[in-house]
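Worked example 2:
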Amino acid sequence: MARVSHLGYLGDRTGKKPNIFPAKILVAAIALLVFTAGAVLFGQLTGIGTVRVDSGSPVAVRDIVILRTAEDEVIVRDAAAGSEIARYEAEKGGFVRGSLRAFARMRQVANVPLEAPYRLIRWESGQVSLSDTATGERIYLEAFGRDNAAAFAVLLERREGGKR
């Protein structure tokens, strides 16, 4: 069997020191990991350097059930009373439709019933959040813009259904 040295690489390397991973880089990487873990632990224990969002207490809470019809209408009902709050036709209610599609996908992945209610909450700070009671996920809707949050805030105030 032919020797590997005929390829030229090993023949050129004879008598030379092998390449070693630089120790300084390894020490620096370990020091960075230790510093990062220490900074996170320090922040969690003392609260210094952390950002906390204090939304206050809930001001308005409403559980809603979302239904999709065969005509691709989205119907929003009050979970307690069963009354219709809103109805979005096929090409209406873009943000409401899109966010509900995302929640439905999360429910399918978590293998929980699609009929479970969602919870809309307006907080003391004025923020509006949408929670999935089945999966425990919560989204603060202001992250998507004030207009999009207002689309859900309307559902907190509305008492009777209407087309949008």
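Residues 23-46 form the longest helix (24 residues). The radius of gyration is 28 Å.
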